[in-house]
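pasting Prostaglandin reductase 1 for the record, 332 residues
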Amino acid sequence: AKKYVVLRPFEGVPKESDFKIEEETLRDIEDGEFLAEAVYMSVDPYQRMKLGNEYPCDMIGGQIAKVVESKHPEYAVGAWVMGHFGWRTHTVAAPAAAASCAQQPYVYPLPDFGDLPPSLGLGVLGRVGNTAYFGLTQLCRPRAGETVVVTGAAGAVGSHVGQIARILGCRVLGFAGSDAKCRWLQELGFTAAANYTTADVRDFLKQHAPDGVDCYFDNVGGEISSTIISQMNPFGRIAVCGSISSYNETNKENCKATILQPYIVSKQLSMEGFLVNRFASRTMEGIAQNLQWVRDGRLKYREHIWDGFHQAPQAFIGLFSGANTGKTIVKV
Ligand code: NDP
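structre below
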């Protein structure tokens, strides 16, 4: 078996030299356990966080795996599972021990996706799809006819947020880092999309949201978010999902502070951060709803698949340069 260890805390943009592949010998499985073989590994911005107090440490992450040996009645050999096993090829999994973990379900049998690929369990039919679904519906609470703005719009979460808002009858404006990504967003049904590296964000909003912005799903933070928030309507709702524009800033003190309070007060805005784990008990509900929309052809997805276990660090680094469109995955 092989696994990735992270040698030191990431500094600035993560580097390939921060990672090392190590061999590991696994013990035999016991009653109530199974052996999982990774097929797809998830690559997500949150993996950039501090991973522990001591380094080297194991790389964290979700994976879609196949059960190859089992002494657990609910996990038969050949079954697909979703597990937060980290970046490793093989795992001795103990679902009972994992159940006491307060995190998003640590391991669960993959629901039946029919003829859809099991890798979707890392994206639209998993944590990412649920982040979009619950963050938008529970925090932004958009009503039909309202205008929703999404940043990081061509990424895994953002591309689903925009489409779900369209399904709910909203106008949707997206910001992404290239013209090609913006063209894809228009194919997905976004009302309009702009390349934030070249467009004037304020002018774009004035043109495409002449009646103001009602909901903002924030994936990136930073200056663009302040500009969008300044254009919001009274009683607007902001779901703060992530702030990827600052993840690689070594000295967070350097991040420009923008004074948002005047907008929040005068327009009586609600701004709330969330972690998808908050909705862990509703995981299957979110997956079922997104699956229904995928089957109906209303929710489209793109997977950016890197081929080979050895590609994982590059795939991860690519998140921070916008190399991906849609969900980033490594096929082991
Ligand atoms: P994405 O697939 O969106 O990948 C990251 C994208 O971020 C890149 O493609 C890039 O797109 C964009 N990006 C990178 N650097 C910057 C920057 N400096 N400024 C603006 N955009 C940047 O990842 P996810 O969909 O998995 O995650 C999106 C966000 O949601 C992240 O902030 C993540 O941390 C957060 N998240 C939060 C969760 C929660 O529970 N709250 C759960 C899951 C994700 P581009 O080319 O457009 O710049």
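The radius of gyration is 20 Å.
The chain has two domains: 2-119+303-331, 127-276.
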